[in-house]
Amino acid sequence: MTATLAACLSGMDKEVVIIGSGLAGLTSALVLARRGLPVIVLEKSKQMGGCLQTFYRKGVKFETGMHYIGSMHEGEILYRMFDFLDIRGDVVLSRLDASACDIISILDDRYQIPNGEEEFTDAMLKLFPAEREGLKNYWAMVNEVARTSPVSVYMDKGYFPLLKEEFINQSASGFIDRNISDVRLRQILAGNAPLYAGVRDRTNLYTHAVVRALYKDNAYRIAGGSDSIALSLAKSIETCGGVIRTSAEVERINVEADRAISVSLKTGEKIHASHFISTAHPARTLEMLDTPLIRKAWRERIYNITNTVSNFTLYLKFKPDTMPYLNSNFFRFNSGEIWEMPLKCAQASFPQQWLYMHLCSAPEQAYAQGAVVISYMDYGEVEAWHGSKPSRRGDDYEEFKRKKAELLLDDLERHFPGVRNAVEDYYTSSPLTYRDYTGTERGSTYGMLHDCSMPLETAVPKRTKVRNLYLSGQSVYVHGILGVMAGGIDTAQTVVAELGRK
Ligand SMILES: Cc1cc2nc3c(=O)[nH]c(=O)nc-3n(C[C@H](O)[C@H](O)[C@H](O)COP(=O)(O)OP(=O)(O)OC[C@H]3O[C@@H](n4cnc5c(N)ncnc54)[C@H](O)[C@@H]3O)c2cc1C
Questions:
Q1: What is the CATH classification number for the domain harbouring 213?
Q2: What are the start-end ranges of the H helices in 240-370?
Q3: Do the beta carbons of residue 146 and residue 117 sit within 8 Å?
Q4: Among residues 341, 338, 303, 346, which one has the least CA distance to residue 448?
Q5: Coil vs helix vs strand at 243
Q6: How far is CA 177 from CA 106, 126, 173, 185, in A?
Q7: Which of 123, 208, 328, 412 has a CA between 20 and 30 Å from the CA of residue 299?
Q8: 63 part of a folded domain
């Protein structure tokens, strides 16, 4: 009997309901739909994609939460993952400058970060000749993490192993400090911290190393926007018979005995299924669940996990053909306290740091149409508008954002003289924007912080006490393209295995 027929005979609407159409939800949906399972993805927003959403202003398309990817050369990990999910052909890439993929600017100094372990090591040894041994240890660790990571093992052997304890119970900052003596080189190695909102003594080594490994040998912008990833996944899901519904906010997961039986949408509609995956932020999922199976202590543990810091983003629209395309990412730090910035950004003068990236509309473009400048921002700064809804937050909120935007532009101008003149218009987003468009707790950029000082307490398991309800997404696995896709596959395969046992 086919799975579709089985679902129809049992009176179910669908075999699997997936809450959230971000990268995790779409990846899980594709894996399940390919198996012929009737799957429906329910998305609260008007646009699917979660962090892959894009928006247009005056003809320029802006990305909101996926700006560059790496390991995209033949045989590399993300290349293989894209092939596995059949998206490579739909995503146009534009390579960042191999000799200065990232530029790290700390106080008065700038450092070009080239692709390639050897190239990076040679460049750093010219500046820090005594650090050969430390850099050797650093790369050995990064390569070991990459080689043994669950996603690598999955792509090679077809199963997901557990994360190695030594990578999740030691901190990224601690490892770097133990192996590198020079304070400036430590800061340079921490310079990619905004890609995971790294915090001293808390962010685990694994998170740092998977990000470093992903971009080590090559890095690419997604020409035309990151929504192409979501659109490609959606096309394949629908080809396999899966359904994606937007403007479909799940309000409740209905549980009977030890199983979920249906979800209730905000509209009042109920959708039944045999299995459920929630890729919403775990705190959001808990709000949908009212069952004694979820004990108070568990609920509190999840609510108490610190979330990675949120951000303020400035979206710049440039005057046509005025701003030469910057084919590097520019990481700026106004102090050397890189690991302290996420938790202390509310107390410090704004901005403490920012990441400046030009948007890529097409490969080899001469001029940029737009850019983003992303800076850490604590949710507390926008708490006054906690109860507000998008576009209806009031003039004082608009003024708050305008002031922040001007401060950010001033600082940008100091490092890129003339940029202000090239800006035709700008737009902004705050922690409230991320909260409302992706449902993430307090607008957190990358979901929950996997804290090496309490690895167990800050881990969110994919299984719940509701037997047929699973969790996935960036808070459950690792944030970012690779971790979230791998998590989406893992969760879907767990459901497939369960269905096989029925
Ligand atoms: C500013 C920023 C920049 C980033 N840059 C990069 C980058 O350059 N490279 C990279 O690899 N990663 C980057 N990331 C991280 C990456 O985008 C995320 O880790 C990943 O996309 C998260 O996917 P997800 O599916 O777990 O969550 P999300 O994308 O947040 O998806 C969750 C979805 O669930 C929906 N939802 C929530 N509640 C409900 C409900 N009740 N009913 C229905 N739907 C619901 C939400 O609307 C959302 O669409 C960035 C993230 C941010 C925020």
A1: 1.10.405
A2: 282-288, 296-304, 341-344
A3: no
A4: 303
A5: strand
A6: 18, 20, 6, 10
A7: 208
A8: no
Which of 51, 227, 331, 376 for mutating ligand 1's site (highest number of atoms within 8 Å of CB)? 51
**Could you tell me if residue 371 is inside a domain?**
yes
- For ligand 1, pick from 66, 87, 276, 469 the residue to mutate: most ligand atoms within 8 Å of CB: 66
**Ligand 1 atom closest to 445 (CA):** 53
Question: Quick check: CB of 242 below 6 Å from ligand 1?
Answer: no
Q: Are 18 and 40 in contact (CB under 8 A)?
A: yes
Tell which residue, 26, 458, 2, 15, has the closest CA to residue 279: 26
Query: Count of CB atoms within 10 A of residue 304's CB?
Result: 9
8-state DSSP, 265: E
Determine the atom of ligand 1 nearest the C-alpha atom of 476: 26
Question: Measured from the CA of 474, which atom of ligand 1 is nearest?
Answer: 26
**3 state DSSP class of 298:** helix
Q: What is the rounded end-to-end Cα distance, in angstroms, of the chain?
A: 13
Asked if 312 and 429 touch (Cβ cutoff 8 Å), the reply is yes
Q: How far is the CA of 118 from the centre of ligand 1 (A)?
A: 33
Question: pTM value?
Answer: 0.96
Instruction: Residue 399: give the domain boundaries.
Output: 309-445
Residue 39 belongs to domain with CATH number = 3.50.50.60
- Written as tens digits, the pLDDT of the chain (502 aa) is 344 434 443 445 679 999 999 999 999 999 999 999 999 999 999 999 999 999 999 999 999 999 999 999 999 999 999 999 999 999 999 999 999 999 999 999 999 999 999 999 999 999 999 999 999 999 999 999 999 999 999 999 999 998 899 999 999 999 999 999 999 999 999 999 999 999 999 999 999 999 999 999 999 999 999 999 999 999 999 999 999 999 999 999 999 999 999 999 999 999 999 999 999 999 999 999 999 999 999 999 999 999 999 999 999 999 999 999 999 999 999 999 999 999 999 888 999 999 999 999 999 899 999 999 999 999 999 999 999 999 999 999 999 999 999 999 999 999 999 999 999 999 999 999 999 999 999 999 999 999 999 999 999 999 999 999 999 999 999 999 999 999 999 999 999 999 886 5
CA distance 123 to 119: 6
Phi, psi (5° rounding) for residue 51? -70, -10
* Amino acid letter for position 132: R
* Of the residues 400, 426, 445, the one at which a domain ends: 445
Q: Is residue 62 one of the residues assigned to a domain?
A: no
Report the C-alpha gap between 363 and 220 in whole angstroms: 10
Residue 414 makes CB contacts below 8 A (sequence gap 6+) with none
